[in-house]
Amino acid sequence: MADVTVHRDVVFHRPPDRESPLELDVYEPADGGADRPAVVAYHGGAWIEGEKGQLEALERALAERGYVCFDANYRLSGEATFPTPVEDAAAAVRYAEEHAEEYGIDPDRVATTGHSAGAHLAALVAAAGGGFDPADAAVSSTVAAAAPISGVYDLRDRTSETANDIERQFLGGGPDEVPERYERVSPAAHVDESTPPTLVLHGDDDDLLPADGAREYARTLAAAGRRVELGILPGGGHGIVVDPEDWQARGIETVADFLDRRL
C-alpha cells in the first residue's frame, strides 16, 4: 500500500466577487510519478453545507492506487445560487488540468466524483462538457469519466408544489419562477454523444434520494448510447462511501474498479 502525501488548502479559484479564494486539498502517491490519472471530488450537503474532507477515505484509497485526487470546496447556496456552485466545480477541473505537469497527471485522464449534492455536481460537470466554463477559459472542464454517488440527476419534473426548499434555495426560486434553471441544472438534460463513461452508484435503501433516480439516469445515458455502469448496493443507505457503517469499503472499491478500467 503506497504512502499518500496531502497538500491542504491549495487555492484553485479566485472569484472576482468574493473576498476569499476557494481552496482544495490534493491527495497524491508519496512516491511521485508522471502521466497519472486524476479525480476531482465534491462533498455533499444538499448544496447548503459541508466542506472538503468529507470524502477523504475515498481519496486516500484512490491515491494509494496511483491517482491524484483534488478535493474541492465550492460556494454553497447560502452564499450563491446556481449556476455559481457548478462554475466553481468546473474551475476545480480546469485547475487540475492546468497544473498537470506540477502534479504529474495526464490531463486527458481526469474524472469527477462526488457524494449527494457533490454527485450532482460531478455528473453535471461531466455531462455538460465544458458548458459551465467562462468564454476565456484556457482549458476546458471536459472529463474522461464520472462516478457520481447517491446523487440527483433530473429536476425537470419539479412543479411549484413538488420543488422543496433546498432546491428552491439552490436554484434561486421555484420552477414557476426560474424554469430554465431546473432544465439547465439537470445532468440528464445535457446527455449527448460526448458524455463520458459514467458509473452511477447508489444504495437501494437510500431514504433521502431514492435509487429510482439513479436507475433513470442510467437509462438516459444508455438510451443516448453512452457507456454507463449502474451500481446499486443492496441495503445501502444514502451514506455509501461516507459512512463507515454503510457499505463504505464496497462503495470505494466499486468506484476504484470503474476508474481503473475507464481512465
TrEMBL record:
KW Mitochondrion (keyword) present: no
Keyword Cytoplasm: no
GO MF, one example: hydrolase activity
Listed Pfam families: BD-FAE
Keyword annotations from UniProtKB, A to Z: Hydrolase
Domain BD-FAE-like: 24-217
Protein name (record): Alpha/beta hydrolase
